[in-house]
Amino acid sequence: MSVNKCLSAQKLVVGQQAGSRVLSGGAFWLGRGPVGMDDTPDLRSLQSVMVKRENFKTCTQSGFCHRNRAYADTAASSSTWETPYNLDSSSIKFSNGQLTGTVLKTVSSTSEFVLLPLTITFLESGSARVTLDEKKRQTGEIELRHDSKAQKKRYDEAAKHVIVGDVSGSKGAALSRDTEDGSTRVHYGPAGAFEAIIKHSPFTVEFKRDGETHIVFNERGFLNMEHWRLEVKKEVKEGEEGENAAVAENVEDESTWWDEAFGGATDSKPKGPESVALDITFPGYEHVYGIPEHASSLSLKETRGGNGAYSDPYRLYNADVFEYELDNPMTLYGGIPLMQAHRKGSTVAVFWLNAAETWVDIVKSRSAVNKMSLGITGTTDTQTHWISESGILDVFVFLGPTPKDINQAYGELTGFTQMPQQFAIAYHQSRWNYVSGEDVMDVDRKFDKFKIPLDVMWLDIEYTHEKKYFTWDPLMFPDPKKMHDHVAARDRKMVVIIDPHIKNTDNYPIVEDLKSKDLATHNKDGKPYEGWCWPGSSHWVDCFNPKAIEWWKSLFKYDKFGYPNTYIWNDMNEPSVFNGPETTMPKDNLHHGNWEHRDVHNLNGLTFHNATYQALLSRAKGELKRPFVLTRAFFAGSQRTTAMWTGDNTAEWGHLAVSIPMVLNQGISGYPFAGADVGGFFGNPSKELQTRWYQAGAFYPFFRAHAHIDSRRREPYLAGEPYTGIMTQAIRLRYQLLPAWYTAFHEAATSGAPIVRPNFWAFPADEKGFDVDDQLYIGSTGLLAKPVVTEGAESVSIHLPDAEPYYDYFDYTTYRGPGSVTVPAPLDKIPLLMRGGHIIPRRDRPRRSSGLMKWDPFTLVVVLDSQGNAEGSLYLDDGESFEYQQGAYIHRRFSFDAQTKSLTSTDLASKGPKTAEWLKKMAGVRVEKVVVVNAPTEWREKESVRVSEEGAKESRRRREVGLSWHEGGSGKASWAVVRDPGVGIGKGWRIDFS
Length: 994
Ligand code: NOJ
Prior knowledge:
Residues 859-905 form the DUF5110 domain. Among the domains are: 63-231 and 255-414, Sandwich (Immunoglobulin-like); 428-645, Alpha-Beta Barrel (TIM Barrel); 857-992, Immunoglobulin-like (Sandwich). Helix content is 19%, strand content 26%. The protein is built from 19 helices and 54 strands. β8 and β9 (183-188) form a beta hairpin. The longest helix has 16 residues, at 653-668. It is globular.
């Protein structure tokens, strides 16, 4: 589509907003007939031409964001400013680790008090939780406008969807009062090392660890809870509408209190203004990370203008942003309101549990001197301002002190990522769309022909009959079972898309059910909400409704849809509504329990993908396979059930580059099973870009190629040599390292540690690496990848955080830090290093799918550090069922000891009822090779090593096996290979090199 055509389409949209012609955040349907005619949009005419920034609000266009920024500006600029929030000292109570009280907000115009019930809970885990509600809304003493049926309360159910950990108070927390400075102090946390100082007037809360202040609430006085009030109609003088009126009368700006228009839609706001905002300062911290999802750097930027800073806050309002821009704080498809602040020696974090539209401003204030006297060691403070449209204030505080502690505590609170099925971490092939069952089977065959490993074939929306989910296009997919069986022959799976919009049409039992059972999201008048998405007119299943979840589950039973190797992709669940405000639902829509969509928007996608997860769990009685669900929209807690990807990126180098910090950010934000469309969704990558993208994608936790319907076919075997061969090598490298990846997933599933880790996380004391976000460590394996993300590169510069030797993965070239080193990176080379001191488990036999590798032997790569030691681990289970929960797994620790010159395998597992059975099954799986990198020269003449193995037959218990030593030379480390030590992977053993 030419730009001119696009522009004329744009005019059409502006003129006929209600006519539903906007598709997916600014793509235009130039379909065959006028809207409203019984015609399905012609998706093939969708083009990726331009970003539609104007479809999305800036802070200035978002009433509550604008009001709170203005409030903050007044507070910050006036020397006489006093925050109107004071804690009523007489109201304070403390028991079982929880402080309760009432914060009084003084309303300046009437001098009346608004009562705001406060709780501060000091959790057993060492985290603290602060909530603030509004009495009048809580008790329903308010009136709603427009006869709205909405709940009167501020939304207080986010925790129900997000929190799985224990939030009861700690018995160990101890309160003391300080009458002199009018504050209450609570000591809590490990050995009482944490302290919260709650100042009454003005109300502030300061969090200390070991006497040092790390986090302060309301230090700048931006706390703002817009209390309920009656609408008073005012006479508006000409020229003094809106903001001008406020300026004229020197009162609050009411222009967006009662309704708010944007893009042709008006939000009726029956509850009036109800935003909640707070400033949170991290004294002495220069770097903050987190609050995904944004196409931006890992270390978050300042947002109030100036050199290199954004002018808008980071926004969290899950949305289908068409052709998103890079280096931008604009919202994207998902949001996690967790922010970590980091400096040498300390990491702390806050989790703002609010599911409404949220904006976060960041400002760094630098002072020449550090504030030692206040116990603050850094010279920069990061000041943040959190602004949500509605809901209660609910904030968790984590005092670290390490990034690992933060992820552990956050994971215990919101859940760890699940152990995935093995296939889910292998290679996925997708495009919009494989056009027929034959097409799918043909692609599957070609992967075999070209000897490229593949685990999953994906189907996008075109497999359905007229965009009706749970149906198959009868012409193009006449025999879905045959197709599924075909891919299953090599242990491959299918993932098919199921979206939350249900086509509003006749003779479609699913929509009839949805309506007759009243399971759809309602509009503000309580009728099933109708909007536009892929199928045209649609309704949306309301998964806040437990009955809708039960119904949804029933649709996935094998007798209704799918086969044992079918898994599910949930897309468009922000939700994306083509003709809705900002491409989503109106905020005054109503969900189950009459909660307004405004209150729960960012949770919407999570409730949907959780329902799908439940559905996959209950497809057949007794079938206990781990579900696989991919989601586009997400919130805190999504990590428990799903993988995510970064949505509709573009086949450009910049998009490849930004995928690295985006995936890293997901990891540190507790949602590590993440990836980006390999090759870029929109457009056609050059062969070089596509090849580099495969090399990068092999290091995403979720590794899937996907492409827009208008892009040219680009399965890796189509590129021709040398590209096909290089992409094949990248995919094979992923398969070779699957044991290391699976072990990294296990660490994430049990401790919350990211699967791919940024430098600051892996080396928290390396100050030079705090803003390094273009290289990634794979779990605790010591593997460090630096994907090439620029055109024509022949080398890359890698930041090494410490003085350990780092070895090239392929040829053992040795690099030493700390600092930057230059590593060759011609097209056929992935810059991948192994840090000295680690042992990496691999499986070296190329297979067609990961399922076929199940009984394959292992290789252990022992990478000696400067002292000659190394350590690593392996986690292994059946990669499919939940039997690991009953002990059906292997977890080994490998260590090479420089003193004894021996490599040992010891058990890290806890036994369960299924342990013995699993170990028996794995008895024949052995270590077939040990490679020692940086092998000592004295092994040069050595021809064998001694192997001893527990529980082996007498003849095998102690034996000699061959060793070969290889000279490195010209900057390369020497290495030694133990050929077929034959020790069991699940057994205890020792190999003596002395
Ligand atoms: C939008 C998704 O982001 C994209 O991956 C998918 O191909 C299209 N929807 C069509 O389903």
